[in-house]
Amino acid sequence: MTIKRREHTDWLLKQVFKGAGLITIGLLGGIFFMLIYNSFAFFVDVKPIDFFTGFQWNPENTKGKYGIAPLLVSTGLVTLGSMLIAVPLGIFTAAFLSELAHHRLKAILKPFIEMLAAIPSVAIGFLGIVLVGPGIAKLFGIANGLNALNGAVLLSVMALPTIITISEDAINAVPQTHREASLALGANKWETLFKVTLPAALPGLIAAVMLGLGRALGETMTVLMATGNASVLPTGFLDAVRTITATIAIEMGEVPYQTTHYFALFAIAVVLFLITLFINLLGEYFANRLRKFQA
Amino acid sequence: MKYYFNCLIVLLMSCSGDNDTIKIKGSDTEVNLAVQLAESFHRINPGIFVSISGGGSGLGIASLLNGTADVANSSRSINEIEIEMFQQKGSPVDSFVFAQDAIAFVVAGDLPIDSISTTDLKNILDGHYTDWTSLTPKNMPINIYGRQSNSGTHDFVRKRLGIDFTPYAKQMNGNAQILEAIKADHSGIGYVGAGYVAHRGSGEIKVLTIYNEKNEKAVSPLDASMIAAGKYYFQRPLFQYYKAGSYDKIRPFIDFEKSEEGKRIIQSAGYYPVNK
Known about the structure:
Chain A has 295 residues and is mostly helical. Helices cover 78% and strands 1% of the residues of chain A. Chain B is an alpha/beta fold. In chain B, the strands form two sheets. In chain B, strands 1, 2, 3, 4, 6, 7, 8, 9, 11 and 12 form a ten-stranded mixed beta sheet that branches. In chain B, strands 5-10 form a two-stranded parallel sheet. Chain B is elongated and about 60 Å long. Chain A binds chain B through residues 56-58, 60-62, 70, 129, 134, 137, 143-144, 146, 224-225, 228-232, 240, 242, 250-251, 253-254, 256, and chain B through 56, 58, 143, 145, 148-150, 155, 158, 164-165, 167-173, 177, 181, 184-188.
């Protein structure tokens, strides 16, 4: 009896966990289907070629300009900028933490870095408005600091915890024998770090960067608050930009339902979804390679 | 078990029995003001409850039509189709203008310009003028600081001038952020609710007076008497629509809005009370 009962419980729990897993997949599929379904309605009204090559995003315009290029370039610019700052800083911090830092210092630094991830994005956007933005304006002698650079600086802060944590895991995973072999051949600590440890951890480092990139791409509140939101093709880091996420957040509230403009927001959401999906898959792929390498 | 069931019934009944609550829905522009009014109103009349929610002028009017609201706040006037729908339901709609909203155009204090015509504003905001040379002796690029397109203010300015905003216009999060930007930017122009600049008469910011080709006299958005006379170009009445049949129910609240206390709240929220 007891055995039967145990088996029964076992079977039941298996189903519960299976169900939980399936729900997650179902949710992802459902969201993707909803986005695609609604954006089809958009492409009935606007030719895909106009959507991808148009240089203006101005749905309020009487002619209705739905070019995704300014939004895509804006998103790209802000994300690229944030990675230029966060990648070197993140990887070197991770290298320092795992290779050089005294274990007591590490015990203090690690929790603080992880706490960085807990700061709400609104709070970071707020910093952008009152601190980083005016700072940039003063530094470059421009009238207003709400621009792509401001967004990039803030996003790099938000991507740092992800990059540091995963990079550190990757560097830690490099077998100790590699380092010992290098040192035994007469290489010093720096040579070992840059020529042996970091290259060996490369797949993991790439995974870290990809996941950090995914974080920066999808961020909404911070960029909405700190980048000026001018929907024009930016020419540099000191121009105001409007990312895809900010555009959806700004326009979804007031758009009349079931109109071309409404469906257009789904279409740009699909584009963003596909980009982040691709980047995350790439990140996962490299992370898996790292796991194989460890095994 | 039966006890719980009874409890549930009581709970459910309490949901439907809210006939003494005045339900107000509509314009997001007016929702803050409506909440302030409702709070003070409830303090004076503890027996009457007022519930406020936003969602946009269109939603407010739709809710009034299907009976889920007693009052629809609206920053635009009701249109023909909506009036027809009320008539089909056999409940004519009535309106009350409880406040006036004015939008001020501001520039930095040291920009040598005091008043501007509506035509020039049009040219600036739709991107025809990109620098100040045609309006002032200073040769500086014009930086526009506006609101995001989900803002009623943005929509009102756009429709009043009949233009499309240039995509180069920066879209800020709110009035305060626009004022801060104008303070720092000597060649910027922005628009904010008049109430936000009324109390801040500092030298860093200048409120432009506005004239159009028909009436030559430039009018300031801070001139309450001109607003009351309806002479300012960027002013709009804030409406409250209600079904004529239910006036008795909402009357205490409307009376409160007309009272001295109500006017004081309207003024401190940055709008102009309607003098009658």
